[in-house]
Every structure is written in C-alpha cells, then in structure tokens.
Write a structure and sequence with these properties.
Largest sheet: 5 strands, parallel
Strand order of the largest sheet: 5-4-3-6-7
Structural class: alpha/beta
Number of strands: 12
Radius of gyration: 20 Å
Helix content: 25-40%
CATH superfamily of the largest domain: Nitrogenase molybdenum iron protein domain
Oligomer: single chain
C-alpha cells in the first residue's frame, strides 16, 4: 500500500542507517508469516485504511468572523513525521497496524517505527505487517540512539507525533527520552474476553494470530462475561457488555485504538485578527 503523496518525504540522516532493519529480515519474515497470516494482516489493513478516511485533505483552513468585527482563522496540516516506539514485548500485528494506519491515511511524509533492540528478534508477523502497510522506515536502535533519532526528527523536521505501544514502564522510558507528556501511550489489553455461547462461530486461529501475546478468556455464561470487565471483547453487539471495543464474529483479525488523538497526526494553528 503506497502511502506517499505528491510531496517527497525528506531524507533521514546517515546516522539512522546503522539501526535500520534490512531487507533480508523483511523477506524472511514475509515468508515465515505464510499465506494465511498475510491474508489476515491484509484484511486488517484494508478495514482500517477505509475507516481512517484516506481521501481527506492533508491541510485545511477556515476563518470565522464575528459580529464584533474580529475573526479567528484556523489552519490544520498533516505533521511532518510520526514515530511509533514499539515495546519488544508486543507481538500483535493487528495492534501494530492500528497504531500506524492513521498516519498512513493522513499521508504524513515520514512514518517511522522504532523497536529498541536487546530483547529478542522481531516477530515475523510484525515485520510483515509493516511491509504490507508500506512503512519503510523501520529501526532497531539502542535507547541511546533512539534518543538521538527523536532529537534529530524534532530538530530537523519540526513538530511530529510520537506514540508508544507497550507497557507503562516502556512508555515512561520513551517519555523520558523525548519530552514528558509528549508521547501518547497505547496500552495493550491485559486480556481479551470472548463469548463462547452455542451458535457463535469464532475463527480462533485468526484470533490467536492477530492478537499474539494477549490472553483470550472464554466465557460460556453471558452474566459472567458481562461482569468480567474486559475493555475489548469478541461478542455479538446485542450480547456484549459496554466495552471500549467490541468485535463481532468475522472481525477476529481486527483491532483499533479508540483514544488515538487526531493531534498526533495533524498540527493546528490559530490566528486572531
């Protein structure tokens, strides 16, 4: 999927290249993911690309004039870059796709993913998801190098957006590298709830692949299911509790981040006159 537009993405400094994930690892991951895995990832990408309104303007302006004679102009534009810091403990390709797709749909010139090295190799499905999304700027830096990379991005390219996908400890560490309060935390679910009543047909293979590393707790009793307090559930909407995310049968491959702020991807400027 090509997420570029008419604006040429600015080049990255040579200092980034030492930590770049090379094509050999991408090719190996693509092969190891298999046809079934790639098909599930493509389904997730297609659904999320659609709902993120890819045809929307990358820049817009409006001016409001008031009876007093004053006016306020608002200018919004896609940020010059968006970076995702990925906790090495994360293994869900659907969570990863959901974390980068809004930036791709907004046609941000530079979309980067950083997974600090030192705690095992990249899961194959994650590299395959990034390749299928069209994310080319993928790195495995040390934390020291990551701090430098973020500083370079902000210093040379302007005010971008930064999100952290992982544990609170991981996000706190990223915040310390960048700026307190400037990185948006994407908190993975501790567990997923699934209603396993008779007559519900779930693709458990797709569920395990798309949400790798996240326990799935099954309930045959609707009352126990409703009282479990899961933030994300797999159930028909008519039988689901008031969770932040509900996925009906056929959506086992999907994920989304309901609280992902638009400000991560678009900057806003106000002029009063």
């Amino acid at each position: 999927m090509n997420h570029s537009d008419d604006n040429t993405a600015p080049g990255l400094p040579e200092s980034f290249e030492a930590s770049r994930v090379d094509d050999v690892r991408f090719a190996r991951a693509y092969d190891k993911t298999g046809d079934r895995g790639r098909a599930l990832i493509k389904s997730c990408i297609a659904r999320l690309f659609e709902i993120n309104l890819p045809g929307s303007p990358v820049a817009a302006s409006r001016t409001d004039r008031f009876a007093s004679g004053g006016a306020r102009s608002e200018f919004t534009a896609a940020r010059p870059w968006y970076a995702l810091a990925l906790d090495p403990d994360c293994a869900s390709p659907s969570q990863l796709v959901a974390a980068v797709m809004p930036a791709l749909a907004a046609r941000i010139p530079q979309v980067l993913v950083f997974r600090p090295k030192g705690r095992g190799p990249w899961p194959h499905a994650l590299l395959t998801a990034l390749e299928l999304c069209g994310v080319e700027q993928v790195f495995s830096p040390t934390f020291k190098d990551l701090k430098q990379h973020l500083s370079v991005l902000r210093g040379q390219m302007g005010d971008g957006g930064l999100a952290c996908l992982g544990s609170q400890a991981f996000c706190d560490r990223i915040q310390a590298l960048f700026a307190p309060g400037r990185a948006h935390w994407l908190r993975p679910p501790r567990a997923l709830g699934l209603l396993a009543e008779s007559g519900l047909d779930w693709d458990r293979e797709a569920l395990a692949f798309a949400h790798a590393g996240v326990p799935v707790r099954e309930y045959t009793d609707a009352a126990m299911f409703a009282s479990a307090g899961h933030e994300a559930v797999f159930a028909p909407a008519s039988l689901a509790p008031l969770a932040r995310l509900t996925f009906e049968p056929g959506c086992e491959f999907l994920w989304d981040w309901p609280d992902l702020p638009r400000e991560l991807f678009f900057g806003r400027r106000l002029v009063y006159s």
